[in-house]
Amino acid sequence: MATVQDLKRRIRSVGNTQKITKAFELVASARLRRAQARIEAVRPYADRMLELMGVTARAAGSVRLPLLERRENVKRVALLPITADRGLAGAFNAQILRQAFALERELRGEGAEVSWLVAGRRGRSSLTFRGYELIQAWQGFSERPEYADAQAIARRAAELYANEEVDRVVVIYNHFQSALVQHVTTQDLLPIPEKVVRGGEDDAEQAEPEQILERLLPVYVETELYRALLESAASEQGARTTAMRNASSNASELIASLTLAMNRARQAEITQEILEVVAGADALTG
To answer: Which CATH number belongs to the domain containing residue 120 in this structure?
Structure first.
């Protein structure tokens, strides 16, 4: 049975851990508010980009551009999971990788060859540990991504697709709904989905709109990736806030349980001391 001193040490240790989890919760909560503000700021821009793409595509008519080309036989698919650089975020990273591996099995079952791009230190280390070869990995910005980070990933993905090294690029990320709820989202990045660009009939007079569309397509890919990175960043902070809040709550329950055990142990010690005193007194008077 644990002594009073042992229980005191455990209570002190759990209390110190609780202080850390509460600090992490406060930091994650503050970062979550900033991440939400960034998402709200980028949404009008992204929506305007979609609108501009549709208008330009209709003006350009039927065009042949590398990022729009849809290949009949999809033999090579690049998967791009967006994970965090750090842990302590509950199932945030695990659910992304679980979905990515499930999609990999499905694609291989269809006869496609799967290759990997990855954003986030956690995703990179997990894939490397499993023996996967990565085309490229990016890390160091999961909590506060910049547009330049999205540009770097988008350019590499577009390069792979335009050079026909892959026939499809799929991004897997956590879509932010609230601090408690994040949904794993699988989105086709390349080729650009038909619902985004709907052209009309061939028109030889539409050279200028075609040139504009050609410039807009890479920007669209960058914007979609930037939005995914921001969604992932907010989801990461939301998951970390919830995980640290749960850890702090569990610590409180453990402290209460240990305190009760300590009080019982102290009472048992006092009772034992009283019994020893009574026994000693009986021995003297006997």
So the answer is: 3.40.1380.10
- Is 251 found in the same domain as 124? no
* pTM greater than 0.85 (yes/no): no
Whole domain around residue 197: which residue ranges? 39-241
Phi, psi (rounded to 5 degrees) for 125: -65, -35
Assess whether 177 and 83 both reside in one domain.
yes
- Work out how many domains the chain is built from and give that number: 2
For Cα atoms 39, 43, 45, give the angle at the middle one, nearest 5 degrees.
Answer: 125
Spatial distance between the Cα atoms of 73 and 112, rounded to a whole number of angstroms:
9
Per-residue pLDDT of 201-217, as tens digits, reads: 444 444 577 777 778 88
Joined tokens for residue 110: 């269809």
- Reported as a single tens digit per residue, the pLDDT across 110-153 is 999 999 999 999 999 999 999 999 999 999 999 999 999 999 99
Look up residue 177 and give its DSSP letter.
S
SS (H, E, C) 62-126: CCCCHHHCCCCCCCEEEEEEECCCCCCCCCHHHHHHHHHHHHHHHHHHCCCEEEEEEECHHHHHH
18 with 82, same domain: the answer is no
Instruction: Look at residue 33 and tell me if it is in a domain.
Output: no
Predicted local confidence at residue 200, as pLDDT: 44
Judgement on whether residues 252 and 173 belong to the same structural domain of the protein:
no
In angstroms, the CA 127 to CA 233 distance is: 20
132: helix, strand or coil: coil
**Residue from 242, 235, 116, 145 nearest 183 by CA:** 235
Establish if 31 belongs to a structural domain.
no
